[in-house]
Prior knowledge:
The chain is mainly α. Helices cover 90% and strands 0% of the residues. It contains three helices and no strands. The chain has helices at residues 2-13, 16-49, 56-96. The longest helix is centred in the last third of the chain and has 41 residues, at 56-96. It is elongated.
Amino acid sequence: MSTQVTKVKNEEGQGSGGTSFAVRNLAQRALEYPRRFRQFLHEVRVEMKQVTWPTWADVRATTAVVIVTVFFFGLYLFVVDLGVSRLVEQVIQFFKS
Length: 97
């Protein structure tokens, strides 16, 4: 370990030697990329096998709940917005005259 640190320090101190070290490091990382990508895909496959997927009936039921909830809150916010805008108009008319 200490010999590696000494070697790196010597290469950095030589000026252009530090650049070759960076190029080597970049090349090593580029060559390592396909292995890391395959490992990532393997881990994704393993995790996807552990997923419990919902049934089609569950998907339809939760979709219906979401649609009804969005409709309800849309209507609620429309009514609140209408009330607030009318209140603001009345306040403006009160101070205008």
